[in-house]
Each structure stands twice: as C-alpha cells, then as structure tokens.
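Input protein
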Amino acid sequence: MDPDTGWKARLLLKSILGAAAGIGLLVLIQVHLVLKDFTPLMLWLPATISVALGSLFAMVLIGKRRQELALSDTRSTLRRLEDIANISADWIWEVDAEGRFTYVSKRIEEILGFTCEEVLGKSAFDFMPEDEARRVRKIFSRLVAEKASMRALENWHLSRHGSRICLLSNGMPILDDQGRLLGYRGADRDITLLKRQEELEHLLAEIELQPDSCDRRELLERLLRACRKLCDSPFGFLLESDPSSGRFSCRSWSGRREIAPGWITQELEDPSFWADCERSRKPLQRETPHAEAGHLGPLLTRVLMIPILEKGRVTAILGVSGKARPYTEVNRDLLQEAAEKIWHLLARKDNSLTQKETEERQAALYHLLIDLNRCQTLSEAAPYLCNAGTRVTGLRQSGLLLLDRDEAHLVYDRDLPAPLADLLQDMPRANPALQRAEQGADVIDLLQHSDELRNRSGACLVRRVFLAPIGTGSEIVGYLVLASQESGELDSVQLNWLSLLTANTESALERIQQQQQLMLQSALLDHVDEAVLALDRKGQVILWNEAASRIYGLEGQQAIGRKVRDLLPSPMDPTQIDEIRETINRKGEWTRRVKQHRVNGEAFDSDWRVTQVRGANGMLLAYASIVRELKTKRLPGGKTRRS
C-alpha cells in the first residue's frame, strides 16, 4: 500500500472511532440523566473526552495533510506539463498582449537554435525577416482586436544560423475574469521540410509542363536550388558518370557563384570525393575538417551524397553540402526521394529532347551546306562553320584556324576569350597538338597535357579546347576550334555529329578551294598580253581574260555564258572548222596564224592556238584558246615586221 494512502486510512479509522465514542457518550449521558445514576457517567466521561479530543486533533491533521497533498499534486502536474512541453514536437509558448514571450519551452533550441533566456521578453517578430514580420504583425493585431484564436498560421522565422524556418502556429487568447485580453497561449510546429517538399513537387510539376526545348543546364540548376532548400544547404551539385572512363564529371552545381568554376570541378571530380559513395551505392554523409576541404572551404566540410542507380550501376550522384548542423535521417530520406524523381524527370526530358536535338542538328548541317555554297573563300565560310560546330556539339565558344605555310592563323573566333585567341593566333604547325591531327587524330584536346586557361585573377576561362581537323581529301586545310569551361571529353554523340559536320563540308571546301585557284589563275591571266578563252564542250565561254576584252573589244561579263560563234565573226569556213576539230581530237591541239575580226569589224592578224583540257579520268572538260595579236612595225628603209 502507498504510504500516503495508509496514513490516510489510519487517520480515517481514528476519526470514525472518535466519532463513535462521542455518539456513545451522548447516549450514555442521556440514559443516566433519565435513571438519575451518575456513577457510570463518572467512569466513562474521562475516556470519552480523551477520545473526542484525539478525533478533533486527527481532523486538524487531515486538513493540513490535504493542503500539502494538494500543493504536491499541483507541483507534480506542473512538472508533468513541463516535461510534456519539452519532449513535444511542438514549441509551446505564451505571450502577453503586446506579443512578448512570457514563457517558451526548451524545444525552441532545437527549432531555431536560440535558448529560452534569449527569447523571453522579445516578440516573435524579432526573429522573422522584415517582410514576413510586417505581414504577420498585421494578422496578430487583428486577432488581438477581435480576441480571436490563432488557427494554422504559417510564418517564417530566421534561425540562429540564418536559415529560413517555417512554423505552423496555433493559439488561444488568455482572458481575465472581466474578459480583458492578457495574452495568448499556443504551440508552433516546424513544417519547413513539408513546405520545401511541396516546393519541389510544384517545381517538378511545372517542369513537366514546360516545352521540351528548355535548356538542360538551367533546368538542373533550378532543381538543385530546390534540393538545397529542402536540406537547408548553401551548395548543391550533380555528378554524372562517363561510361567510357568510369569517372564522374560535375555537370551542374548551384550556390556560391563567386567561386571559380574550375575550383568546383577540381574538388568534386576528385575520385577521393565520390569513390566511397559509388562503391557502397548507399547515401553517404561525409565530414571533412575545414583545413582539408580544399578551395571550397566550409562548403565541403559537411556533405550528403545520394547515389542514383540504373540497372545496379551508379550513373549519377546528387549532393548537397555546407549545412551548419549534421544532416538528419529526414534530410537523407527526402533527398533520396527527390533524387529519384529528378533523375526520372531528366531521363524523360532527355528522351523527349533527343528527337528535337537531332532535327536541330540536321537543320544546322543543311543550312551550313547552303551557306557554304554562297561562299567564295574559307574566311567567308568561317562564321558558318563555327556556328554549325557550336550547334551540333552544344559548346558555346568556337573559332576557325586556317593553315598557311608554316603557321596556323586564327581567322575567326566566336566568344573565345582573348588569352585563348592569342594562344591560337599564329600557332606554329610544329605544335604537338597539330602534329597529332596530321597523324590521323579525329579530335584533339589542345590543353590535354597542361592546366586549364585562367585569367590574371585566377578565374578559369576554359578547361578544354578541342580541335577538329577540316580537310579536303587527305589534306588538312584548317581546324575547327571548340572551347568549353566544363571538364571531360566530348561524348560519343558530340563526336559523331562533329564527324558528320566535317565530312559534309569536305566537298564544299573542295569547291571553295577550286574557286580560289580559279580566281588566282584568272588574276594571273589578266596580267598576260595574250587573249585567253576557255570554252565548254558546247562552245560556251567560261573564261575570258582582260587581254581578250582589249583585243576583241568585248567585256568579260558580256562574253561569259555565250557561244563564241555568236560573239565574233568566224575566220574559218565550215570545212576548216571540221578540219580544226579533227586535228584537235587527234593531236590534242591546233595552231595556226589567221586573220580575225574585232566586234566592231576591224581585222587583225593573230597567232591562234587551241588545246583540249581533260580531267584526271581522261574526260574532255573544255577547250582553251590562246590568241596573240600580231602588230606590224615599220623598219627603216620602208620595211615592216610583225610582232
């Protein structure tokens, strides 16, 4: 039996006995008064009085004990309520009519990081962002005026570490006997993770409705920002595996933009960073001393990595880092769920984008060929080649190197940084990278054996510079330059499209080269004194130099494309023409001194030579005519001489 209960039972028994003795005394007195016999009364009276006094004392003790028990019960109840408040998931609070805290439970230390002493005497508005404080203050003022209860009020607070915490507040007014408002009593629940999860779900649904042409890089950065908020982290990243090398490359990251991209990829792509996560194929939280965190400092002192599996193989790693406190199991579970949804969404987006990207790349090649047909020189073709190169590979910086004797000159650049352009300009052909290309390499990495290119402040300008040889037949005439700030090699899809690009431009480049040679030859022919004509097999003029214009009195643009017999009077009769054709077919050329006429009918003597022009396969391509005008000079003594 409980000691308190036994003590109460004994006192109660004594009280009952005392009361019974008192009643017996009264009965005895009444009997003896009737019988007029006082002897028994004198015998029982002292005992009865003693019992009555004991009963009275017992009743006094019972009253005092009841007060002590009531006080003890009150203290026990308060202690019980305090324990419940401290172990509750909610933060219990009381405020006065001005909103100042008069009581807070210890749960606030886990939610906001502040101690009870730091909060008492202050209002909740002191721990909110300014815009949120203005919004909630208006709501609280309305509740105070109406003495209404607070129901499911969502409000954002700033923790000691600066992170945003969303609380769901419920409270009831405290009124005195006259109905005056003394304050509010209520509880707050931390719903930050729920709100962040709702934001992520909303973002995923929004991305689902976006057109398939959305940029994958921007899409990843938005998703990573949502993951950072979900885990209260300043930094997020996604590492994707390269099947050929087995290494992980940092395809996207979010947060702390002031850090140079080269430092980020250098730290995240180090195998010591991700190897344990890939090997275990389980979520991994890594704690690194600040001194060993590399260039990123506190961002990599605490990291949570989630492996993404496909057919039992880790294909990507989603991670967040830099949280002020250790990551919880809730963080890990939410991030793992988010990783699966994000990767599933990206996979479907990639599949839907594949067809569109293929069509865009095909269109880029088609328009390139059309544009190249309008170009007369390789310099004119450079912008079209660079634009097509960036579209089929996705790299944003490009340029064109053309070979000239012992050097390669950068004739065009598209967004190439100045230090890289200076490096490429007048690059000697003895450069090891160019020699590898001449030895048959399809695509070469100019910075393969050196550090990435940086500016004076140390920021990374480019990490990879790829050179794709451009040739005609077996001869290399230049290189398409493609630069990138991302690490890693070109993937198989990029290489295939780049190879298709160079293969489709080969015939166009050969035509451009031939046109350049013809232009050079035409320029040389314009400096000779003989008229040079070229006729196709139908007798139409395809070449007419300046000497021909001077001798015959007809400009080249008037002669090109027309038959020569329609332009000039023929010095031969049909029989002689047949003889000339037979001689040319038999000997390959025909030479004779004949009298010809200009367009205005003036006659002049000339040496006329006609030869056949055949291709490599022996097919007749054209007839070339060389006409030298014979001028008569008078010598002393009346003699003449032709020259």
